[in-house]
Specification:
By secondary structure, the chain is mainly alpha-helical. It contains 13 helices and 3 strands. The chain has a 3-stranded mixed beta sheet with strand order 2-1-3. A hairpin with a 2-residue loop joins β1 and β2. The longest helix is centred in the last third of the chain and has 29 residues. Bound molecules: zinc ion.
Length: 267
């Protein structure tokens, strides 16, 4: 009896530990929206080079693979689990933020985006290696635009902030990964079409800032999310109303900027 209880405790305890870390990213729709928007802004050269790596498959088809492999039990991809986010303390000014972002060691979202860009462009690597790097990059530029992937370490990017979404218990990271996106009730192609109305001027203004600045923009929205979503918050229509614009802008910027990186890499 005692043993059983201990076993049960161990299981419950390990679930509690596992669940917060499992927070995915943008959910399947969000990542596909980012990828689909990017697909529409690729240069002719980039399209040609990407075809050599992905064949006739689209960026959107691959956008979620780096999350799917978290379920791989062979541990082949275990080392990539830290690539999806970077932890930052709250309340930093832009300059401090950028210094901290650049000086953080380890394979985090920021450092790894830089590594992947180089790998994709490196012709001494095999097609398979470059393809893997490309697929990760497609996914991670999406993650970079999900504000809570630039969140606080102590709450695991919001995974520990428990809220309800239309009375269903969840956490604020999951709300931003999936709930808000799914609430719009678009397929990824519909969503991409609806968002993808930009002027050249707008696109250039988003593309021509630094990668560090893109991280900072996400971080500022994360600050706003933290401020507006206390533990135990009951989220419904009003939450969508407050954040819908931020959500859509982030998805759109993600796509426009992914295209910029790919056009640059395949110049
Ligand atoms: Zn991710």
């Amino acid at each position: 009896m005692n043993k059983r209880i201990t076993l049960l405790k161990a299981i419950v305890f390990s679930l509690i530990i596992i669940i917060p870390i499992e927070g995915f990213s943008w959910g399947v729709t969000g990542h596909r929206v980012v990828a689909e928007i990017a697909q529409n802004h690729l240069s002719r050269k980039a399209k040609k080079e990407i075809k050599k790596l992905l064949g006739n498959e689209t960026l959107a088809e691959w956008a979620n693979w780096p999350d799917f492999i978290k379920s791989d039990t062979t541990k082949t991809w275990k080392h990539t689990s830290t690539w999806h986010y970077v932890n930052m303390p709250g309340g930093l000014q832009e300059e401090e933020f950028i210094v901290k972002l650049k000086s953080q060691a380890g394979n985090n979202l920021y450092n790894q985006i830089l590594v992947l860009k180089n790998q994709i462009a490196d012709r001494s690597l095999s097609i398979e290696q470059r393809k893997t790097a490309l697929v990760f990059l497609i996914h991670m530029v999406g993650d970079l635009h999900q504000p809570l992937h630039i969140g606080h370490e102590e709450d695991l990017g919001g995974n520990r902030i428990k809220v309800t979404w239309f009375d269903e218990p969840t956490n604020i990271h999951a709300v931003w990964d999936e709930k808000l996106v799914d609430f719009q009730q678009y397929s990824y192609t519909e969503y991409a079409t609806i968002l993808n109305r930009t002027t050249r001027e707008q696109r250039e203004s988003w593309q021509n800032t630094s990668l560090e600045k893109w991280f900072y923009e996400s971080y500022i929205i994360a600050d706003k999310i933290y401020a507006q979503t206390p533990d135990g918050a009951k989220l419904k229509y009003r939450y969508n109303y407050i954040f819908e614009n931020d959500l859509n802008t982030q998805l759109l910027k993600g796509g426009i900027r992914l295209a910029k990186i790919l056009n640059e890499v395949f110049q």
